[in-house]
Amino acid sequence: LFRSVQEPEDRVNIYVKHSVDRIQGLMIMAVNAEEAVFVNVLGDIDPAHLNNVVAGIDVVDDFDVDFDLAL
Fold first, then answer.
1. Can you tell me the distance from the alpha carbon of 68 to that of 71, in angstroms, rounded to the nearest whole number?
2. Which is the most buried residue in 4, 16, 32, 48, by most CB within 10 A?
3. Which one, of 40, 35, 29, 23, lies nearest residue 5 by Cα?
4. Do 9 and 32 meet the contact criterion of CB atoms below 8 Å apart?
5. Is 4 exposed, middle or buried (0-12, 13-18, 19+ CB in 10 A)?
6. Which pairing describes strands 23-32 and 10-18: parallel, antiparallel, or unpaired?
7. What is the DSSP letter of 47?
8. Is 14 exposed, middle or buried (0-12, 13-18, 19+ CB in 10 A)?
9. Buried-exposed string 16-50: b where 16+ CB fall within 10 A, e elsewhere
10. DSSP class of 11
11. Which long-range contacts (CB under 8 A, 24 or more apart) does 65-69 make?
């Protein structure tokens, strides 16, 4: 588990498979009482470009994540 955000009615978990400097896979799970959404991205992802990709597809407003892979 990379990050988890839980509010009274919503929960978002982000899971990351990574090497030293690259993301190898990313899974986002968003759940509330009415629906569940799962996004699974496989492949080599450069963390420096992830914010630009998400902003380019206009899915989430003000998306800004700092992936520190040294965790």
1. 6
2. 16
3. 29
4. yes
5. exposed
6. antiparallel
7. H
8. middle
9. bebeeeebeebebbeeeeeeeeeeeeeeebebeeb
10. E
11. 65/3, 65/14, 67/2, 67/16, 67/18, 67/23, 69/18, 69/19, 69/20, 69/21, 69/22, 69/23
In order along its 71 residues, the chain shows pLDDT tens digits of 677 878 888 888 888 888 877 888 888 888 989 999 898 888 888 877 776 666 665 555 555 555 565 54
Token pair for 22: 């690259």
Q: Six-digit token pair at 30?
A: 């968003």
Amino acid, res. 4: S
pTM more than 0.90: no
Distance CA 26, CA 49 (A): 14
